[in-house]
């Protein structure tokens, strides 16, 4: 990524930047080259965004170019996504391309600017919140879903900027059509990659007691929930993933007031 810094007017106030005529040039070689690129990018971006022509600058960097990505981030560009195998390198091998952009209104420098840039590039884990409801006999409330074969507790993925407990309450409301209590946290479980999903953190909250009469009053979300059942773990065994069964067997025997940290449904060794 050496050579002149090119600017292409893409129209609609957008400029695309590149480092040379070779769009997938070899990765940068180290800190000195990255610093030089950062300085050029910073100057160019300030010039282009200070006028009235461009409101957005964007550029693409090879995913296997850590120094190039570092230079782009440090010049105030935010990471927006990855285009899989979108670049052909000089050796003819296709590599992933990382898209970066900087807007006129983006803060650059200082605590706010630095945090916003790093927030765009640092890893983010999916967060899931489920609720454990039981009846007086210790049976567990499970949902039979329409989109997969295994059963699971009420709940789902927590939305951005949503508190996990509130996310659990929202999911229960959407899936079961009622407002049920969300009690103390029972478990935090790290889940490894599964069925195309990346790894995730799952929080299990205690919802307290429900009855068969409560179930009769539910209004199930028709597109997702086929049925809800109060079952023993033995009855549900064939419908649970091995991870879910391990986790439920453990947390249903917890003493009152106990919260556990799990990894893959088990206590860490």
Automatic annotation (TrEMBL):
Its cofactor is Mg(2+). Signal peptide: none annotated. PROSITE patterns: NUDIX (PS51462), NUDIX_BOX (PS00893). One of its GO terms (molecular function) is hydrolase activity. This is 8-oxo-dGTP pyrophosphatase MutT (NUDIX family). Keywords: Hydrolase, Magnesium. It holds the Pfam family NUDIX. Residues 123-253 form the Nudix hydrolase domain. InterPro entries: Acyl_CoA_acyltransferase (IPR016181), NUDIX_hydrolase-like_dom_sf (IPR015797), NUDIX_hydrolase_CS (IPR020084), NUDIX_hydrolase_dom (IPR000086). The keyword Hydrolase applies. It comes from the Bacteria.
């Amino acid at each position: 990524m050496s050579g002149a810094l090119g600017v292409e007017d893409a129209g609609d106030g957008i400029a695309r930047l590149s480092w040379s005529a070779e769009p997938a040039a070899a990765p940068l070689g180290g800190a000195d080259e990255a610093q030089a690129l950062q300085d050029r990018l910073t100057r160019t971006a300030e010039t282009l965004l200070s006028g009235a022509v461009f409101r957005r600058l964007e550029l693409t960097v090879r995913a296997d170019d850590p120094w190039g990505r570092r230079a782009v981030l440090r010049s105030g560009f935010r990471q927006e996504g990855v285009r899989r195998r979108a670049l052909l390198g000089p050796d003819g091998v296709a590599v992933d391309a990382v898209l970066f952009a900087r807007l006129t209104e983006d803060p650059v420098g200082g605590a706010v600017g630095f945090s916003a840039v790093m927030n765009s590039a640092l890893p983010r884990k999916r967060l899931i919140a489920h609720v454990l409801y039981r009846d007086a006999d210790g049976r567990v409330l499970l949902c039979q879903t329409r989109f997969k074969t295994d059963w699971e507790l009420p709940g789902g993925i927590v939305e951005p900027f949503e508190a996990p407990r509130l996310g659990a309450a929202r999911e229960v409301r959407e899936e079961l059509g009622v407002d049920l209590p969300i009690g103390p946290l029972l478990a935090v479980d790290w889940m490894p990659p599964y069925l195309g999903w990346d790894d995730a953190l799952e929080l299990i909250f205690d919802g307290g007691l429900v009855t068969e009469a409560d179930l009769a009053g539910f209004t199930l979300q028709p597109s997702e929930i086929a049925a809800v059942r109060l079952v023993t773990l033995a009855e549900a065994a064939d419908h649970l993933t091995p991870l879910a069964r391990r986790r439920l067997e453990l947390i249903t025997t917890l003493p009152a007031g106990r919260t556990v940290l799990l990894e893959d449904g088990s206590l860490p060794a």
